[in-house]
Amino acid sequence: MSVRVVVGLQWGDEGKGKVVDYLARDADYIVRYQGGANAGHTVKVEDRIYVFHLIPSGILHPSGICVIGNGVVVDPESLVEEIAGLESQGIDVCGRLRISHAAHLVLPVHRLLDQLYESSRDAPRIGTTGRGIGPAYSDKAGRVGIRMVDLLDEKSLEAKLTALLGRHRAVLAGAPNSPPGVSDLLQLCRGYHERLAPLISDVSAIINRAIDQGKSVLLEGAQGAHLDVDHGTYPYVTSSSTVAGGAPPGCGIGPARITGVIGIAKAYTTRVGEGPFPTELEGPEARHLKEKGREFGATTGRPRRCGWFDLLAVRRSAMINGVSELVITKIDVLDGLPSLKICVGYRTGDGLREQFPMEPWFLQDCQPLYREFDGWGPGETSGGRLPSNARKYLDFISGELDIPIRLVSAGMGRADVIIL
Ligand code: GDP
Ligand code: IMO
Ligand code: MG
Fold first, then answer.
1. Which of 57, 197, 236, 287 has the most CB atoms within 10 Å of its CB?
2. Residue 128 domain boundaries
3. Predicted pLDDT at 20
4. What is the atom index within ligand 2 of the atom nearest the CA of 300?
5. Is the pLDDT of residue 364 over 90?
6. Are residues 223 and 251 in the same domain?
7. In terms of domains, do 355 and 237 share one?
8. Could you say which DSSP state residue 303 is in?
9. What is the CATH number of the domain that holds 86?
């Protein structure tokens, strides 16, 4: 029996999808527990590339049951499209997907509110994915959200939709086009009911039973620790608990059932959207990372900001997540760079810090203190090999964090994984 959480330790896009697909070979259940269609998890199998937004990244293995937990905010339109896309390629989704009755819906009104908030001059622009995530979680916390189970009871749905729209009347009045009304949303919900009702389940009962039976469960995080609503670089964060501690409430299991936390970090750092990024690069090294790493957002296509590996940021997220083992991805992207840097401290006018700071202004102003490493040649991490300089680079990270690196990923494909 194992119940392992897979989490991102940076600002998202660490390669969680790839790693979950790899680990899912041996998993009976693969569970998403937070976030929504803001996530874009890419898996490459042979020549095909799949991008998952809501469906867990284990769906390509025919035996695993995939579960969307109560902590996820589900955009039914996005989900239905994702299911159809996979089923058209012969992948059985509906037979193996369960959606929590308590998961909240992202409605078109949430996407509209996301855009309106982002274009408002009164608050900082976050650079969201525009998927309605913040507004949907706000409505959940504000107790006017619509849950999956509400689709099953049309009689009470109209009153719930009226309450939800009423909450946002003032803001929606500023929309350039007339926003959807109650009857429009009701109509949409009827369609969602038709497509999704058979998948709505008590997933907490399903997962707990599976654990009792000694099954293997993978809990797939979305985003990354520094985008966590509590622990991230607030306000430049997403609106959910992305850390491992968010997994138990996000799928309805007790925290003591977790047997391990796998932290994923890229061999460098990327970030999409606004917010501080002390090791961000410009110039030829940034171009190398962006081009070789194909650093464009899987959900929005936006170019990702790129920079050196930040040990302080990852040490902080390893602590918050209670990481028991590490996976380092995209080591191949560093192939061919003559020298590499890892940030080991932040310098400001007040001196040197060796811990990730709590003050947001500090991150904006600091200068990273780097330790330099010799690089290795082009293509040297291919074919399951790790040149000695790559070993030194990885050993330094593992030693400084005092956490073993179990896997190193050196390419997009399933075969490009080195077991340490
Ligand atoms: P996620 O959101 O954490 O699942 O990550 P994304 O899928 O958004 O972004 C990671 C990108 O890097 C995807 O295009 C992956 O296919 C790709 N990728 C994952 N691991 C590796 C690796 O080891 N090397 C290379 N070159 N690409 C990788
Ligand atoms: P995966 O799971 C990278 C970022 C957005 C923005 C902030 C808030 O693929 O790693 P939101 O739409 O959530 O309100 O946006 O969070 N963001 C991500 N960045 N990877 C993601 O997911 C992200 N999901 C949200 O760019 O800065
Ligand atoms: Mg992604």
1. 57
2. 104-196
3. 98
4. 26
5. no
6. yes
7. no
8. B
9. 3.40.440.10
Q: Which atom of ligand 1 is nearest to the CA of 297?
A: 8
DSSP state, residue 358 = S
**Residue 41 annotated as catalytic:** yes
More confident residue, 1 or 293: 293
The total domain count for the chain is 3
Looking at the fold, whether 214 and 340 belong to one and the same domain comes out as: no
Q: 349: pLDDT confidence band, cut at 50, 70 and 90?
A: confident
The residue whose C-alpha atom lies closest to atom 23 belonging to ligand 1 is 330
Angle at 298 between CA 292 and CA 303, to 5 degrees: 55
Residue where the block lists tokens 């940076």: 10
Instruction: State whether 72 and 163 are in the same domain.
Output: no
Question: What is each CA distance from 134 to 14, 35, 37, 354, 359, in whole angstroms?
Answer: 22, 10, 12, 32, 23
Model confidence band, residue 329 (pLDDT cutoffs 50, 70, 90): very high
Tell which of 148, 176, 196 closes a domain.
196
* Model pLDDT, residue 284: 95
- Kindly state whether residues 189 and 212 are assigned to the same domain: no
Domain boundary among 247, 262, 277: 262
* Whether the predicted pLDDT of 393 surpasses 90: yes
Q: How far is the C-alpha of 284 from the C-alpha of 259, rounded, in Å? A: 42
Q: Are residues 275 and 385 in the same domain?
A: yes
Q: Is the CB of 330 under 6 A from ligand 1?
A: yes
Distance CA(268)–CA(304), nearest Å, equals: 12
Residues 254 and 284 placed together within one structural domain of the fold: no
**Distance in Å, CA 293 to ligand 3 centroid:** 13
**Confidence band, pLDDT 50/70/90 cuts, at residue 134:** very high
**For residues 174 and 194, is the Cβ–Cβ distance under 8 A?**
no
Same-domain pairing of 60 and 127: no
Rounded CA-CA distance 115/121 in Å is 12
Distance of CA 275 to the CA centre of its chain: 17
Cα-based distances in Å from 362 to 59, 157, 233: 42, 47, 11
Confidence of residue 227 (pLDDT cuts 50, 70, 90): very high
Which ligand is closest to the CA of 21, given by its number? 1
Q: In angstroms, rounded to a whole number, what is the distance separating the alpha carbons of residues 391 and 182?
A: 59
Give the pLDDT score at 356: 95
Q: Determine the pLDDT at residue 177.
A: 87
Is the pLDDT at 69 greater than 90, yes or no? Answer: yes
